[in-house]
Amino acid sequence: MDMNQMSFNPMNWHQLCLSSSSTVSVWTIERSNQEHHFKSKLIQLPLEDGTFFNETDVIFPPSLPKDPIYGPVMPLSAIAGLVGEEAETFRPKDDLYPLLHPTMHCWTPASDLYVGCEEGPLLMINGETLKVTVLSKIEEAPPMDRGNLISPVTLVYQKEGVLASGIDGIVYSFTIKDSSYKVENFLEFEQPVEHLIFSPSYKMLLIQTEKGSVYIYTFGEEPTLDKVLDACDGNFQAIDFITPGTKHFMTLTHSGEVCVWWIEDCARAGKIYLNTPVTVLACSPSSLSAVVGTVGGSVHFLDVNDVESPRVVHKTFLSESPVQHLVYDQRGMYLFVGTSEGNVFVINAKPSSSFQILGFTEVGKDILQISTVSLLEIDIVEVMVLSSLAETGRSRLEIFTLPTILPQVAETFTDERGRLRDELIHKYLYEVEHTLSSAVLDFQSNQIYGFCDQVPYICSYLLPEEEHSGVYILKPHQKVQSRHYGPGMFYLSSHGWWLITIAKCGILCVRDVYTLETFARCRSHSHQGHGIQLMRISMDGQSILVNGRDDGTLVYLKWKLFGGNLASEALKHYQHLLISLSSTMNEENEYLIATPRVSLDLGSEAEHTTPQNVKLSIDSSLEELVPDDAMKEIPWIQQKSQQAIEKEVKLFSQKRKEIKNRIKVLAKTVLNMMEENEKVDKIAKLEQQEFGLDLEELERLKDESEKEVSKIRKNVEMHNLAKSYLAELIKEECWNSMAVKGRALKCFHLPYVVENFPMKERTDEELKELKRVLQQKKIETECLKLRREIVEVQSPAVLVKQRHEEDDEEEEDENKTVKNTNLLNYLLGSLSTDFGVDTSLLSSQLELHSREEKINQIILLKDIIYKVKTAFNNEFDAAYKQKEFEVARVKERNVRVQEIILDLDLGEKVWQPGFDDSEKPERTLVVESWEIKARRHVNPWQKAKTGLIVTREMERWFQSKSTDMRFRALMDMMGGVLDVKKEDILRMVIPQPDFMAKPDALWTEEERKQFKDYEKKVKDLNEEKDKYRKSLEAELKKLQTSIQESTQNFDDYLKRLFERRVKAEMVVNQEELKINNLVFSLLLNEELSSRESFLNNYLTKKQEEKNQISEAIQKSREDLDVYREHYDNLLAEDKVLDRSFKKEFSEIPGHQVDILYKLFKRRPRIHKQKVNLDTTNIVPFGERPGSGKLNKDNFAQLMKAMDELDNVNNMPEGLDPLIWDHFCITRRAKVENEQKVKQKAAGLMEMMAFLRKRVEEDEQVQQEIEKVFQELVLLQEEKARCQLDLTIQILLKQGQVELENFQLTLEYSDAILINKNIIEDLNAVIRIQVSNLYHVRSA
């Protein structure tokens, strides 16, 4: 159970509230002697808009209207098929609405609950009825401050309202009256407030912030807010000792909080907020100053002469990359700053130099550690930088040397951009063939110690004595096991004799620098918190600070025994270093004290910004200085770069002017050339890009265009691939998987379209299931026949039925085309028998009661649908083949028709039938060339190849034609044919004689005779032409008539097939309707079964609950009887003590006995503490009910008061002291017994109330069980009714039932459907019995 808050009711410990981010539950605690019973009730929360959702009872939903056709409406859990505990709370996704999310709650003196929500509303929950009320907020003018309640983090009750803290750091006061409340700002803090708690007197309020700070607010005429604990702002990011490391140390958090602490008691001495995200911290050995690196690339220098109030004295903006490393050399001469972009800046560490930046050098980007060696005996400082080469799996070491006189000669050591010259600082590169997590340089500068990253080893590497160029590969010289796991870090002590290692395991080891053996070891942190992050050691070596990585702890270590050679060497080096640095420290500290404070919001002076009115910026083409009034802080490295550029600009200004002039002349020439280019012909015109003089830019643009083209081509290819894949899926699903492809068939002349039934091949499982059902039906039929032959008695009705069957048997055999069924068509519910489908194995619709029968019927109906579709598809295939034949025959005849039309020169268009795409759908899957609208892309080599082939073919053809003399002669003499065909008569023409060109008067007799012969030939030819033309026209008409008749006959056939298709579709719909009705009845049966299973499970659960309650009642009664017996015994003992008093003191006089009896009945008065009136007005809960501890305290106070009554001063006069002592003992026993009787009486009342509650729960559970039984009975009746009330499908002919007046009975709830054959058989039996009776009477 995920809970955020738990609280007891202050006025009644029997109530407990638990709340989470989504639920609120109230628990009731009941006690019976030593047994406690917990019972929870879940609170119904309102919706996000403050309204309430009316939830219906899921277990026993209200009765829904019953559908007269589709049966009862089941609950949603039954429809979902849930039968377990999840059905009790099931709600569909569409019925889920977002509720309010509680955050905190508090109790009121009236035992009510106030609940704050994440969305803002405040809820009030009645403690008895658990009814939720959404309190309305009294809106006023919005305040001008930043406070705005979003969600209360904590709630505490006060009189007339509550105090709530929000995530905005403001404590609000809610004044609640009736069902509304008013919000006012009470207190305001810098961080969110997480906890609020009142003191018992309600005069003080304890407040805890998210950061961990604790405040106390004291109420009164002049309220006060006191800070009890000021916590640090997050985990420590960096630590270091303040020189010399014997009194103070500093810590740094990520948010910029710098704190100074005392070493003795680890108490905080002072702090300062930098108000910026920071990374690292380092303290200077040569002055009481410290430096802090930021994420923004700045370094802040702090003055810590006054540890109670450290201050910022200088700020330098080095670069825009975060500062990762800050390292002082051992003498405090230089500060080395490593950034994330791979630059190491060298800064003068003396405050008197205003922390001058001396230069920078470039190293690897991933800097892991910076190590220095600065000894008093030498005048140089050696620096080693370790960086990682992740791509090669190696580590790089870069070592360079700085002279102590560098501040005086800094300009000679750097170039114009501030970069230190490698040849002057003697920079050497080394690489290690494996990765190191840490490395340090020993004080002799001839050896490097490295901590291996991947393996648990510590290695030493000897540096070469001679100088080298390039990269030198270092080999391990000494190798020992680190006895750490995980990557670690190295640190050298100030005297260089100790090598300290830390790692992820959380163990700190102090080793000898020469042997690498561990002589001190300490586990300061746990490996579960990822071990140690940082370590710092003081100058004298006596103090060590260890900071955890993720556990949020800082450990201060000190030697238990500090002596011997190691201690003496450390102290000797410490004293020698202090003496050598004392004068420098005094001077620098005096300068620090005199340096004014620097504002954190402003940058430093000349090193941070450029002059106020000028900003250097370089134009990409002209490199001109542009003034800019808008001032922006510029990093030092960028300033140096701009100053170098400015100097170069001034140096080469004359040369720049000459280049500019030449560029202008060249640009003018190019423009003239472009103007001339526009005037020339198109064939001679150059492209505009060819005038570009920047060849590199042209090449770049060309590469970019090629990249863009390749990118577009790739996207198009991927798009085409996706489309192809989708097309393949669609083709596989809708075409390849179809055993019968869907296609249509159109008429030639009529607008009829007939479609077949697309069908998939039946799976093996379906065929196996069908085979099983068919076999089962055949077995049932044979069993029924055998049962009738063996058991059935030949009744008169059966004889009459057999006689009728024998009379009609011959007619049925003659007209029988398909196998008859024992069901009539109107009871069969479909016309499937018209398609030759066997329906004899189908069960009657009136006999489908069981689930198995319905499933078998569905399988048989699906088989019938498949057969009906198959039968029609066969007819469709026959018609399709017929159309193919008709189309082929028409095409064959159209060849002759086309020839006749050409011979007769009619100019008519021949009708050519064909198939559409719907008739041949496979053509849709093939893309023809004419469908492609885009121009086909042909490669140059393909064009050349095609041209060469065409040229060769033309040459070959001309060559063959030129050598074929016979063909040329035939074409010239006889028109290319050897014999004249009959079809050529219409084209024959008799040539005119040549003399007809002369006038008739000039003709000779011979020519006149030739003319007469010519006219005769022309007349004969025309007669032949007319005769042949008439024959062609008759043949044309005959062919057209034949085509028309054949296509018309096919259209008539297709028209009949269309009617057949409509009937087949009707049969399929009829069978599918029957299947849907059966499927719905199966679903309804499943819902009823699920509901019944759920009710049985729920009944079992309630019966188990009742058994548990019965056992609890039995045990409670037994305990009550035992407890009552004890109570009666105590009560009897009390009465015995009262009655036997006078017998106990019968030896003394009677008047003394009476006095003692009065004292025996006397009880001391317990004086209650007077409650202060002010406290009564403040404390909201007043007097709370007593608890067990309070009763014990009251009894102890009573016994203390009895001591006063037992005093000798209260003894009657003349009474023996021994008798008085005996009397006191007897009275004390009586008082103790009375207290026991009171306690037993209170316990007895609790046990009786507990028993009464259990009896009420038992009665409630019994009522629920009876309700479940009633629901089960109704459900079983409904289930039986659904199994008997069948939905059947009956065929009625159109117009069979016609009524003049529409007066029909639509309610058939009490009607029964009976088979007509049963009535007819009964009528036949009645007629036979009547006939027999008539014959008997007449006889």
Written account of the structure:
This protein is an alpha+beta fold and 1339 residues long. Helix content is 40%, strand content 22%. The chain has an eight-stranded mixed beta sheet, with no helix packed on it. It has a five-stranded mixed beta sheet with strand order 29-30-31-32-36, with no helix packed on it. The protein has a four-stranded antiparallel beta sheet with strand order 1-2-3-4, with helices on one face. A hairpin with a 5-residue loop joins strand 33 (436-441) and strand 34 (447-452). It is flat and about 190 Å long. Mean pLDDT is 82; it is low at 143-149, 602-630, 794-801 and 810-822. Keywords: Cell projection, Coiled coil, Cytoplasm, Cytoskeleton, Repeat, WD repeat.
Mean pLDDT: 82
Walk across the major sheet and give the strand order. 5-6-7-8-12-11-10-9
- Report the sheet with the most strands, covering strand number, pairing sense and barrel closure: 8 strands, mixed
Count of extended strands: 48
Helix content: 25-40%
Question: What class, by secondary structure content?
Answer: alpha+beta
Q: What ranges have pLDDT less than 50 throughout 5 or more consecutive residues?
A: 143-149, 602-630, 794-801, 810-822
* Shape type: flat
Count of DSSP-assigned helices:
20
**Approximately what portion of the residues adopt beta-strand conformation?**
15-25%
Distance between the termini: 96 Å
